[in-house]
Amino acid sequence: MDEMADALGTISGLRVFAYFPDRITPPVAVVDFPAELNYDATMGRGADRITLPVTVLVSRVDSRSARDRLLAWPALVKAAIEAHAPVAYDSCRVTGVEFNHSFPVATVEYAAATFSIDIIG
């Protein structure tokens, strides 16, 4: 999770957390706990596979510009994650993104996109 946060930290203007903070100031990326962990992806304990969610929150959901701001992030996130030279894992790729109309943090609803990261290592 920390290494994924390091990869996202290369995006200018994006605040990054390797955990869910109590409060945020968008735009912010949050690396969540693994959604799925599969052991023995290759024979002889060669590798495990993790699906790691990363959520980018851009602005309050009622903001007129929320949609445009949100749609600007997928290409940047994918490029930063896939360009990162990993230490804690062998490889990763962004396999998809889900757009959320309302993602709550504290008492505020944010427009967000949650990326699925497939990690092998």
Description of the structure:
The chain has 121 residues and is α+β, with helices and mostly antiparallel strands. The chain has a single domain, classed as Alpha-Beta Plaits. The chain is built from three helices and six strands; from the N terminus they run H-E-E-E-E-H-H-E-E. It has helices at residues 2-8, 66-71, 73-83, and strands at 15-17, 28-31, 36-38, 49-60, 91-105, 108-120. The radius of gyration is 15 Å and the shape is elongated. The two termini are 13 Å apart. 24% of the residues are buried. The mean pLDDT is 91.
Query: Low-confidence parts, pLDDT < 50 over ≥5 residues?
Result: none
**CATH A-level architecture:** 2-Layer Sandwich
Question: How many separate helices?
Answer: 3
Instruction: Count up the domains.
Output: 1
Into which percentage range does the β-strand content fall? 35-45%
CATH class: Alpha Beta
Distance between the termini: 13 Å
CATH homologous superfamily designation: Phage minor tail protein U
Structural class estimated from helices and strands? alpha+beta
Summarize it.
With 121 residues, the chain is α+β, with helices and mostly antiparallel strands. It has helices at 2-8, 66-71, 73-83; strands at 15-17, 28-31, 36-38, 49-60, 91-105, 108-120.
How are the SSEs placed, and which strands pair?
Elements: H1 2-8, E1 15-17, E2 28-31, E3 36-38, E4 49-60, H2 66-71, H3 73-83, E5 91-105, E6 108-120
Parallel strand pairs: 1-2
Antiparallel strand pairs: 2-4, 3-4, 4-6, 5-6
